[in-house]
What we know:
A: 5 strands; globular; B: alpha/beta; 4 helices
Amino acid sequence: MNNSITLCIMDPPYESANTTTAFRLIDAALRQHIEVNVFAFEGAVALTVKDQMPHPNPVHGTTVEEEKHPTTKDLVVSLFDLAESMKADLNWVNCGLCVDERGTGNFIDAARRGGPPDFLQMVQSSDTTLVVPTRRD
Amino acid sequence: MSKILSIVSTAYRATQEEQDDAGLWVNRALVNGGAEIDLLLQGSAVNYAVARQDPTGLVIGSVAIEHPAIPPQDLKALQAGGMQVFADATDIEAYGLDPEKLEPGVQLITKGSIAGLFRKYEQVWQW
Lengths: 137, 127
């Protein structure tokens, strides 16, 4: 056993409960010192975009500071921080072709650009792989 | 490399904006990289197995989508690369599709036998 897992995620930010579930799985794995590989495919390449900005909430009547709501890139940065504190590896690869067509190239420094060969390598080096489908049926 | 069964169950998701169905594309890329993968079509994705379908010709404003995804062609290419392609017979019937009009080589299996199919693979991925 390599003590590592690979996740492939596809949902764009703010569209599906799948994203929260994936983040919780990554968090839980890192806390057990399990190496986590993430291949962000399709819309999930937008999860790490630096240009994301939180906003005030006129329905709640709150300012940005009061709302204090993290963007998905903040959550991913936090996962990298957690990995460091747990001395576990978090490898986050954004599918490059998906990045190009979505214009999401300005992503956080901890993530890197890659493609299916990277996913294949992750699969081959992990104990197990979870593909989180973005089903609409 | 473990033997993998990939399941695609949502059809035509962004197949005009994209050049391919994302699930079929990535599996073909992985096979090209040496992965051993077979494919199961379920749900609305069983429509991919219909041999004669033509998604070309869409124009939005003045922009023509000249190279949309053509799923049965992708299935042919996957099969040529050694991939077995299965389709859920229950969903074929539910969508009113004629089994005689499917892409050659697509193997129909009943929902009841899918669990047994899973046992032949080391990993099962749902796209």
